[in-house]
């Protein structure tokens, strides 16, 4: 009887397992974004909006989709989440360049397709236009430059290509700015400096007006204060010594 009971129990357990609905595996599911089933780069330009459409393939049930911009989740309306989901980036600007947009399966976020935006735009320059420096002091002209693809930068002085002098001029460049440092500025450094950036999409320029003023004389502050104190004390004692005469006059 004990063996029969155990056999019946095992049979009931297997029956329950067979009747239990198992969730479909996500291994066979695929996503595509704008007909791309793998990660890709999308080249675009400033201004016009772009649309990204994510679609579920090989699904046997309704699947919820999620969109991410970098690490942040994008808010979607209820009717834009199941089996197909669309997002629109409008207007496209410089901050979208290099950003990754990812469409992911909600119940298995390892199933995803990502697109990196390659936003191309001509040089955009900025920086302090006028600089005043005392003769003998150091000064730095910073040309902030954004462009994609990155442009070639050149410095000019008074409309002529700048001749760099060793130990007097120093250049430093990154993908976002171009610096010209002038050590111990001289009167001959006065003038208009131009930062010119050339790229396949166009050129950009920014002028910087540098004024080197006369070196200010150095006053011995401590000596002046000490002299003022001595004068004040002398006057005080002089008045004190002659107070009797002063009172008699009055």
TrEMBL record:
It is a single-pass type I membrane protein. SMART domains: IG, IGc2. One of its GO terms (molecular function) is cell adhesion molecule binding. InterPro entries: Cell_adhesion_signaling, Ig-like_dom, Ig-like_dom_sf, Ig-like_fold, Ig_sub, Ig_sub2, Immunoglobulin_dom. The chain crosses the membrane at residues 223-241. The keyword Aminoacyl-tRNA synthetase does not apply. Pfam families: ig, Ig_3. This is TMIG1 protein. The lineage of its organism: Eukaryota, Metazoa, Chordata, Craniata, Vertebrata.
């Amino acid at each position: 009887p004990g063996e029969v009971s155990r056999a019946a129990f095992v049979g009931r357990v297997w029956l329950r397992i067979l009747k239990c609905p198992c969730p479909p595996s996500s291994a066979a599911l695929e996503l595509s974004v704008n007909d791309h089933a793998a990660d890709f780069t999308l080249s675009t330009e400033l201004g016009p909006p772009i649309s990204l459409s994510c679609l579920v393939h090989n699904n046997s049930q309704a699947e919820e989709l999620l969109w991410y911009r970098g690490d942040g989740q994008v808010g979607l309306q209820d009717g834009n989440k199941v089996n197909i989901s669309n997002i629109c980036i409008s207007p496209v600007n410089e901050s979208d360049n290099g950003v990754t947009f990812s469409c992911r399966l909600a119940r298995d976020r390892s199933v995803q397709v990502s697109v990196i935006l390659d936003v191309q735009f001509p040089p955009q320059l900025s920086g302090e236009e006028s600089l005043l420096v005392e003769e003998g002091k150091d000064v730095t002209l910073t040309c902030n430059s954004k462009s994609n693809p990155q442009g070639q930068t050149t410095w000019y002085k008074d409309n002529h290509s700048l001749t760099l002098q060793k130990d007097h001029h120093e250049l430093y460049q990154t993908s976002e700015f171009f610096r010209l440092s002038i050590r111990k500025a001289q009167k001959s450094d006065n003038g208009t400096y131009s930062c010119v950036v050339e790229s396949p999409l166009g050129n950009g320029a920014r002028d910087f007006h540098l004024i080197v003023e006369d070196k200010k004389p150095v006053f011995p502050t401590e000596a002046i204060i000490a002299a003022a104190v001595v004068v004040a004390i002398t006057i005080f004692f002089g008045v004190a010594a002659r107070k009797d005469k002063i009172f008699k006059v009055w």
